[in-house]
Write a structure and sequence with these properties.
Elements: H1 2-19, E1 26-31, H2 37-44, H3 47-50, E2 55-60, H4 63-71, E3 77-81, H5 82-90, E4 96-100, E5 102-104, E6 106-111, E7 126-129, H6 135-148, E8 158-161, H7 164-172, E9 178-182, H8 185-192, E10 195-200, H9 201-204, E11 211-215, H10 217-222, H11 224-241, H12 249-255, E12 261-262, E13 268-269, H13 271-278, E14 282-284, H14 290-305, H15 315-318, H16 322-329
Parallel strand pairs: 1-2, 1-3, 7-8, 7-9
Antiparallel strand pairs: 3-11, 4-11, 5-14, 6-9, 6-10, 12-13
Helix pairs in contact: 2-11, 5-14, 8-13, 11-16, 12-13
Length: 331
C-alpha cells in the first residue's frame, strides 16, 4: 500500500505540472530588433511561465520572412511593425494589432565629412534604406523624406536598399551619403565616431509607436485566454524594462550578441554601454493610446498615398484594444 500511495502522489504531481500549462502552445515570432526586447525579457524572466502558458518564441531577420511563417500557419502571434499588419489586412489576412511594444528607434545618420548635416542636404544624394514597401520604408518615404525633409523619394534622391547591418559600413566607405537606420546599429555607428546623427525620429514625434503585438484570426477566435496571458507577460516585461534605466540591458546585449566597439581614439565601449546609448532613442510601452492610434492611421495614409495598399483603411479596422484591456484588468 505505501508503494501504491507513492505512485499515486507522483502521478498527481505529474498531472499538476502538465495542467500548469493548460491550453495549446502559443508560437510567437519576433523581428530581430532591439525594440522588441519585451518578448525576450518575458521569456528570460519567466513571465510566460508565471502566466501558465507554454510559449515558443522564434526570431526572424525581417518582416517578410516572418510573414511567410504566419502564412504557413507556423505562428500564432508576432512582435512586428504596424505597417506589415495593415498591409496584409488589405490583402485579406484578418489579423489584428493588440498592443504596443515600443516607441522610437529610427534615425538618420551621415558621415561627418559628407556635407549632409540636415535632411534637406539629402537632395541629389544617395541614402541607405530598406526594401521598398516594407514597414520602415513607409516611415522613411512618408514621414522622414515626405513630411520632414520635403523631398521626393527616387526623384530628388536615390534610396539604396540593403540589410541594416551593412548600412554603417556603406556610409563609412562612402557608398552612400547617409542611412535610415535603427538600434543597436545607430549607437554602434555613433560610438565608432565617423558618423553623426542628423535626424532622431523620436524627437520629431515623441513616443511614436512602431513595433506592436499582433495575433492571427484563428488565434484570436480559439485562444483568447492564452492571448490575454501573453499580453499579461508582455506588460510585466515592459514594466520591468521601465523599472530602472539599466533593467534588462544584460539580457538585450546577450540576445543581440553585442561585442565591444572601438572608437576613433582607440577607446573600447562594452555591450551594455551600447544598449544604454540606444535607450536614449527608444523605450517601451504596452498600451496603445489615442496618439498612437492617430500615428498608425497616419502610416496607413502614407501607405495608400505611396501605392503600397490599394484602398484606404481605418485604424479601427486593424486595432483591437479589448485583449490588452482585459489583460490589464486581470488580478
Amino acid at each position: 500500500m505505501p508503494k501504491l500511495k507513492v505512485i499515486l502522489v507522483i502521478a498527481l504531481m505529474m498531472m499538476f505540472s502538465l495542467t500548469s500549462y493548460a491550453g495549446e502552445k502559443i508560437r510567437i515570432g519576433w523581428v530581430y530588433a532591439m525594440a522588441n526586447a519585451p518578448v525576450l525579457v518575458a521569456n528570460e524572466k519567466g513571465y510566460f511561465k508565471e502566466q501558465g502558458i507554454d510559449v515558443e518564441i522564434k526570431e526572424f531577420k525581417s518582416g517578410p520572412l516572418l510573414h511567410q511563417a504566419l502564412s504557413a500557419g507556423e505562428l500564432d502571434m508576432a512582435y512586428i511593425g504596424a505597417p506589415p499588419v495593415y498591409h496584409w489586412f488589405s490583402r485579406g489576412l484578418e489579423s489584428r494589432i493588440l498592443a504596443k511594444v515600443n516607441y522610437g528607434q529610427a534615425a538618420v545618420i551621415s558621415r561627418k565629412d559628407s556635407g549632409v548635416n540636415q535632411l534637406s542636404d539629402l537632395k541629389n544624394k544617395k541614402m541607405a534604406g530598406v526594401r521598398k514597401g516594407s514597414g520602415m520604408d513607409v516611415l522613411l518615404r512618408g514621414y522622414v523624406l515626405g513630411d520632414a525633409a520635403k523631398l521626393k523619394p527616387d526623384t530628388e534622391l536615390e534610396i539604396v536598399s540593403m540589410p541594416t547591418g551593412n548600412m554603417d559600413s556603406a556610409v563609412d566607405e562612402k557608398v552612400v551619403n547617409a542611412a535610415f537606420i535603427w538600434e543597436p546599429f545607430t549607437s554602434q555607428s555613433l560610438i565608432r565616431g565617423n558618423t553623426q546623427l542628423i535626424f532622431d525620429m523620436n524627437k520629431a514625434v515623441p513616443k511614436y509607436p512602431w513595433y506592436i503585438v499582433m495575433a492571427m484570426p484563428d488565434t484570436l477566435k480559439n485562444k483568447r485566454t492564452e492571448v490575454i496571458k501573453v499580453l499579461r507577460a508582455h506588460k510585466q516585461a515592459v514594466e520591468y524594462l521601465n523599472s530602472k534605466p539599466n533593467a534588462g540591458n544584460g539580457i538585450i546585449a546577450k540576445a543581440f550578441n553585442l561585442g565591444e566597439v572601438t572608437d576613433v581614439n582607440g577607446k573600447k565601449h562594452g555591450p551594455t554601454e551600447i544598449v544604454a546609448m540606444a535607450r536614449e532613442r527608444l523605450g517601451w510601452e504596452y498600451e496603445l493610446k489615442k496618439e498612437d492610434m492617430e500615428f498608425i492611421q497616419r502610416l496607413m495614409n502614407y501607405s495608400y498615398e505611396l501605392g503600397f495598399i490599394k484602398k484606404r483603411l481605418t485604424v479601427e479596422e486593424i486595432v483591437d484594444n479589448s485583449f490588452m484591456q482585459e489583460a490589464i484588468a486581470m488580478k
